[in-house]
Specification:
mainly alpha; Arc Repressor Mutant, subunit A; 2 domains; 9 helices
Length: 186
């Protein structure tokens, strides 16, 4: 039986007890890791939803491997190394996504500028209505995006993940482009 208060100070004995099958020790270990990880991630990320995702992902990795692994360094060092890798993966994904968003925004020509074709606005609205008729979620995400909402704001507004938002936006743009091409060739 593990004394939870004592387990915070001797994590290695807690790990040994958990590896031998002591569920109380395992729960105390996971509770300690969750609290410690959350503090570290919150300090580096500053986004509560993403913090919780990173902590949970790290805990899943630690739980799935710690019983079978012969850890050469201390358990804490091993667990925090996993946490650090998860944080770095998150930061890389976020930088890539923000760069893609920025590149898309800078690369896209102004759709309704004064120098564009005079009938483009009407064609664009007609195509947007067709997208709306075929898939209202795609039309909604297009509308929000072109109103200037960021990806994070769109995700929060529509209650969807970033991956889902990117998929919907890509499909909506493809449908809009196809419609515009068809109308241009007529």
């Amino acid at each position: 039986m593990v004394n939870e208060q004592n387990s915070f100070f001797d994590i290695n004995s807690l790990v040994k007890q958990a590896q031998s099958g002591d569920k109380v020790a395992e729960n105390a270990l996971l509770k300690h890791l969750r609290e410690s990880f959350r503090l570290v991630v919150q300090h580096r990320i500053w986004n509560n939803a993403d913090t919780e995702d990173i902590v949970q992902d790290t805990l899943l990795t630690v739980c799935s491997k710690y019983k079978d692994l012969k850890i050469e360094v201390s358990f804490a060092a091993w667990a925090y190394k996993i946490l650090n890798h998860k944080i770095m993966d998150y930061v890389k994904r976020k930088k890539i996504r923000s760069r893609l968003d920025r590149d898309r925004f800078e690369a896209s020509p102004p759709l309704l500028s004064a120098t564009s074709k005079p009938d483009l606005k009407k064609r664009l609205l007609d195509c947007f209505k067709k997208v709306n008729d075929s898939n209202i979620r795609q039309a909604r995400i297009l509308n929000l995006y072109y109103q200037g909402y960021s990806t994070e704001e769109i995700c929060k507004k529509l209650k969807i993940s970033k991956n889902n938002a990117y998929v919907l936006l890509n499909r909506a743009r493809t449908a809009l482009e196809k419609c515009l091409e068809i109308k241009e060739h007529k």
